[in-house]
Amino acid sequence: MFDKLFQAQQKAQEIKERLDHISVSGEAEGGKIRVIASANKEIKEVNIDPDFLKDADKEELEELLIVALNKAIAQAESISQTEMAAASQDMLSGLGGLGNLFGNK
């Protein structure tokens, strides 16, 4: 039992490390605002087109940053859920017949 728990913890750590190396991005205003994050939802870069910055006002910039940030976070969440679901499926299949208790075949 403890061996299975250790394996699950090890698998979770492997997933976290893998997610750290996956980049996602969110854009607004046709790519003039771009946010890059890891799949662990850590913001890595914010890029703002200098030409856009000259003409933008504070409120517009803030709104577009929120849009780009939310898009990047949504992509990161999707990838994270996919990775965790795959890992869960692998762990359940490793439990033999117990996986069927959860509706998995």
UniProtKB/TrEMBL annotation:
Name this polypeptide is given: Nucleoid-associated protein GQF63_04795
Organism: Sphingobacterium humi
A Pfam short name: YbaB_DNA_bd
Record's GO cellular component terms: bacterial nucleoid; cytosol
GO MF annotation, one: DNA binding
Subcellular location: Cytoplasm, Nucleoid
Family: Belongs to the YbaB/EbfC family.
Keyword annotations of the record: Cytoplasm, DNA-binding
Superkingdom classification of source: Bacteria
UniProt subunit comment: Homodimer.
Signal sequence, renumbered to the chain: none
Functional summary from the UniProt entry: Binds to DNA and alters its conformation. May be involved in regulation of gene expression, nucleoid organization and DNA protection.
Gene3D superfamilies in the record: Nucleoid-associated protein YbaB-like domain (3.30.1310.10)
